[in-house]
Amino acid sequence: SSSLPIFSQEEVSQHRSLEDGVWVTFKGGVYDITQFVSMHPGGDKILMAAGGAVEPFWALYAVHNQEHVLDILSTYKVGEL
Ligand code: HEM
Asked: What pLDDT is stored for residue 78 in this prediction?
């Protein structure tokens, strides 16, 4: 178990811009990916998931079904839902 804070969906949804921070959720984890947005190989498309779950988008873009993508995501974890 981790000692990271618990966030509500409401709190996550308030972080959907570079100004306010870009947060996403994945399998119950909350991630602040603000610093990764400019490094994303898929460009600004990543902002479509801002403030919500990445799963629906990753289901469409199967390039994310790789361990190294989860390794990257894990470095941005800030909490749990
Ligand atoms: C590619 C990470 C969200 C669209 C990639 C790659 C990484 C990555 C590491 C390169 C994979 C590889 O080629 O081995 C992430 C992370 C995300 C995220 C950490 C969320 C936190 C999204 C979203 C979309 C998206 C929400 C679309 C709505 C794409 C596309 C590519 C890509 C289209 C392929 C780019 C290309 O090769 O031309 N992403 N992604 N990504 N991503 Fe994302």
From this structure: 98
